């Protein structure tokens, strides 16, 4: 018998235990995707026949899925012999399966194909719509099933902190900017910021500026 040992950062440790919901949020590059990617591969290796689905809100191609990350994890953990890679799915030990889906394309009927799946991992969950979550939650109901979500939540928390401080000290508005970052731009729009054209732009030529009035 061989034993698979994967070191885990302390902050993620409590997510190793079984739970119906597991969520992580944090800033860019904080290890969220790698943690769940590893946990998924490790779980499929340890529990034969695990059925898992990796979810995005929108997934037009597999390049927009977690497939590549999971394949890299299988390789770096040295587990290539037990997993079979296909163009659109990964077969895991004991007739298990990892598939990749965009929920935007699902209907109340088509989502039923996911019943029986034990793990659903939503990465980039800050983009998940309320509709998609409402479809997914009652569908993932196999015994011991788990819903994992990882999202980029730091920015919105920071926004709220800065806004509260701005209000307290009497600012009229807050202006911020994004460059080549659609997720971040969406965060600003959803938080009530609107596109702003400053008289003297201070960043790159294609930077977008966002403003929110505080009063
Ligand atoms: N367990 C790990 N093993 C190896 N590398 C890791 C691990 N965790 C994080 N890293 C390194 O840190 C980088 C960022 O990690 P990751 O992509 O998981 O961040 P993230 O929190 O998902 O970021 P984003 O919000 O941008 O999606 C990775 O590209 C990788 O180089
Ligand atoms: Mg990530």
Automatic annotation (TrEMBL):
<dbReference type="InterPro" id="IPR052380">
    <property type="entry name" value="Viral_DNA_packaging_terminase"/>
</dbReference>
<feature type="domain" description="Phage terminase large subunit N-terminal">
    <location>
        <begin position="20"/>
        <end position="153"/>
    </location>
</feature>
<dbReference type="Pfam" id="PF04466">
    <property type="entry name" value="Terminase_3"/>
</dbReference>
<dbReference type="InterPro" id="IPR027417">
    <property type="entry name" value="P-loop_NTPase"/>
</dbReference>
<protein>
    <recommendedName>
        <fullName>Phage terminase large subunit N-terminal domain-containing protein</fullName>
    </recommendedName>
</protein>
<dbReference type="InterPro" id="IPR035412">
    <property type="entry name" value="Terminase_L_N"/>
</dbReference>
């Amino acid at each position: 018998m061989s034993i698979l040992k994967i070191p885990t950062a302390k902050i993620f440790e409590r997510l190793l235990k079984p739970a119906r919901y597991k969520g992580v949020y944090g800033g860019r590059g904080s290890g969220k995707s790698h943690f769940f990617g590893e946990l998924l591969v490790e779980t499929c290796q340890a529990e034969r026949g695990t059925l898992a689905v990796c979810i995005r809100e929108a997934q037009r191609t597999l390049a927009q899925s977690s497939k590549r990350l999971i394949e890299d994890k299988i390789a770096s953990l040295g587990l290539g012999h037990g997993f079979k890679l296909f163009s659109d799915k990964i077969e895991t030990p004991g007739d298990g399966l990892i598939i990749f889906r965009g929920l935007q394309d699902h209907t109340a009927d088509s989502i039923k194909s996911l019943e029986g799946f034990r793990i659903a991992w939503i990465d980039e969950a800050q983009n998940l719509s309320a509709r998609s979550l409402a479809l997914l939650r009652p569908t993932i109901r196999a015994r011991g099933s788990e819903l994992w979500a990882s999202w980029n939540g730091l920015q919105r928390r920071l926004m709220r902190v800065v806004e509260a401080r701005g209000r307290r000290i009497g600012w009229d508005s807050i202006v911020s900017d994004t460059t080549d970052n659609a997720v971040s731009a969406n965060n600003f729009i959803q938080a009530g910021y609107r596109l702003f054209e400053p008289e003297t732009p201070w960043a790159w030529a294609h930077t977008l500026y966002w403003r929110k009035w505080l009063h």
